[in-house]
Amino acid sequence: MATLLDDAFAKAKKEDRCALIAYVVAGDPDMETTRAVLDAVVEAGADIIELGVPYGDPLADGPTIAAAGQRALAAGATLENIFRLIPGTKAPVVLFTYVNPVLQYGVEKFALAAKRHGAVGVIVPDVSLEELEPIREAIRKNGLIMPLLISPTTPDERAKKITQTSEGFNYIVSRLGVTGKDAVDVEGLKDHAARVRRMTGFPIAAGFGISKAPQIVAIRDSVDGVIVGSALVEAYASQKGAAAAAAGASRLVRLLRLACKRAAPAAAGAKG
Amino acid sequence: MHKPDERGYFGDFGGRWVPEVLVAPLAEVEKAMNEAFGDPTYWEEFHALLSEYVGRPSALTVAHRFGQPRNATIAFKREDLNHTGAHKINNTIGQALLAKRMGKQRLIAETGAGQHGVAVATIGAKLGIPVDVYMGAVDVERQALNVYLMRLLGATVHPVTGGTQTLKDATNEAFRVWAAQCEDTFYVIGSVVGAHPYPFMVREFQRIVCDDGRIQSQGRFGRLPTDIVACVGGGSNALGIFTAFIDDDNVNLWGVEAAGKGTNTAETAAPLAVGSVGVLHGSRSFLLQTAEGQVKPTHSISAGLDYPGVGPEHAYLKQSGRAKYVAVTDDEALAAFHACAASEGIIAALESAHALAYAQQLAKERGEEGLIVVCMSGRGDKDVTQIEKLDGKALVAEVTG
């Protein structure tokens, strides 16, 4: 199903750059700040927003995002007010949520509400391929897509199956472990991206550990998009007040967005 | 039901609800487990360590004075007599041998009260494998003795400062570390929880409790027990003592959860009694959670039962009705602890004291034919400073009140 995500990746491709996907924890430290940060991030050039639903036990996240989730929960973030952040956001929004909040809210009800508020898709990192079907069915039935994750340790056969099931884009995990700003082995990531590239014609976006412009420069020819989370959370969480948070986020996104633009000679292969 | 299905489900419960980065390491453990379980030399080594190092089989002791007056017989399955003082070592030996077989260079573990951490540190020292233990910062503070024991045994204890800083957060952290370091690291989970194959694998290591308990009951009494009673946190000692009796329909199985200050209060740790179905630490089971699907903080006097989830096989046994689950409060457990110490000369772990409290009650309902076997899952040395404090407060209250 063609979505706003396809348009976003197509636009980036046309401009000869990889797309920039910005991950923001909803409600951290409050909804007003998130609103300001989302607006600033989109204005600064983020192509797609990954809106993180705060969760107290995030198995795939490192300390930065886990702490952001704790702050959001402490401030009273709920799914209802998280959904309300979507309509005013001037970029395609993909929700990023652990499965338990979705199960308790009700998968159908969740998908319906997300769609009604204008979300394009849902990423649920702790639903493995084996557990996916009933959830994916409910999500798809309501017109949303589910991008899936592929890890460096995912065997080829399984990775192929994931690329055939994933919609919107293939989320490749840059390294073993969790989200955060620790180093990424750029060469390993390029190999991982090339491996997945051979399996699918759909866009590939890399996340987990992508935090700096030089990393993006190093991998921008190998992927169609980069996902930046922990670094962005740090950029706004270190500021006091919504306006300063928005400014902090904006500065980082502008810098990273510049890095997404492919240099003319290196871009020859990627232009296809 | 003796084995989960190939996706790791006991009925509707279990599975592998994990980030993709953990799927390959779990599959690797599953494959190695299946190979090891089919290899007699693996089990020979396991049983040799259990007998020569742990001191198995643990005794079955008739309790003559505890819970009197009563007509039923009560006996204790004495896991407290194991090396390291609890059933935990049965499981850590099984997993450490598997890790060795897989060529892993390091063991990691989560721990709450520190019992499992000590059991992993112990077998790590014995087999010469380095051990890193993740423990909530709050637990590190309140379980100083076990932290020190782990260090004496050569393990490194990492305080976990995220979330509520207790067992559930230590488990999250151990999973995260494993995700990053799975190539050379084996994650030793401490209970029948987590993603497939852990709930099944840990049960298979703990079923030694009932495999020898069943034989002892027949040897000592010439019959099987009428009732088996065990405390349930994650639920490994309970499945340990239930499993061999699952097909014996006339043996009643009782799992005793920690009610904390009462199952009608927020300060409880009884997911089977008052929780609902959800996903925690990789499996679908009962847990204590909010309407928004956030895991709730828990309370129990017993650190080993202070956990918001429960093993998926217990959820299945509850749903099928094969086992019954009840809850015992802090106060009831504490009273049973004292009664057991005074009447049987056994300092029970506060976890086991929950089972004792319910057994005492059950014994009054059973006639002379009643034969109640309680799993004495651990000894209570680790709890005495806490009990001293609690009694100190009670004494002060008596004097001033």
What does this 3D model show about the protein?
- The complex is a heterodimer of chains A (272) and B (401).
- With 272 residues, chain A is of the alpha/beta class.
- Chain A has a single domain, classed as Alpha-Beta Barrel (TIM Barrel).
- Chain A has helices at 4-14, 31-43, 63-74, 79-83, 99-105, 107-116, 133-141, 156-165, 186-197, 213-219, 230-237, 242-260, 268-271, and strands at 19-25, 48-52, 93-96, 121-123, 148-150, 170-173, 204-207, 225-228.
- In chain A, helix 2 (31-43) runs parallel beside helix 12 (242-260).
- In chain A, 59% of the residues are buried.
- Residues 266-272 of chain A have low confidence and may be disordered.
- Chain B is globular.
- In chain B, strand 9 (227-231), helix 10 (236-242) and strand 10 form a beta-alpha-beta unit.
- Chain B has 401 residues and is an alpha/beta fold.
- The termini of chain B are far apart.
- Chain B has 2 domains: 25-50 and 88-202, Rossmann fold (3-Layer(aba) Sandwich); 57-85 and 207-400, 3-Layer(aba) Sandwich (Rossmann fold), CATH 3.40.50.1100.
Topology:
The complex is a heterodimer of chains A (272) and B (401).
Chain A: H1 4-14, E1 19-25, H2 31-43, E2 48-52, H3 63-74, H4 79-83, E3 93-96, H5 99-105, H6 107-116, E4 121-123, H7 133-141, E5 148-150, H8 156-165, E6 170-173, H9 186-197, E7 204-207, H10 213-219, E8 225-228, H11 230-237, H12 242-260, H13 268-271
Parallel strand pairs in A: 1-2, 1-8, 2-3, 3-4, 5-6, 6-7, 7-8
Helix pairs in contact in A: 2-12, 6-7, 10-12, 11-12
Chain B: E1 9-10, E2 13-14, H1 20-37, H2 40-54, E3 60-63, E4 73-78, H3 88-101, E5 106-111, H4 115-127, E6 131-136, H5 137-142, H6 144-152, E7 156-160, H7 167-181, E8 185-187, H8 198-206, H9 208-221, E9 227-231, H10 236-242, E10 252-260, H11 271-274, E11 276-280, E12 283-287, H12 312-320, E13 323-329, H13 330-344, H14 350-365, E14 371-376, H15 384-400
Parallel strand pairs in B: 4-14, 5-6, 5-8, 6-7, 9-10, 9-14, 10-13
Antiparallel strand pairs in B: 1-2, 3-4, 11-12
Helix pairs in contact in B: 2-3, 3-4, 3-8, 4-6, 8-10, 9-10, 13-14
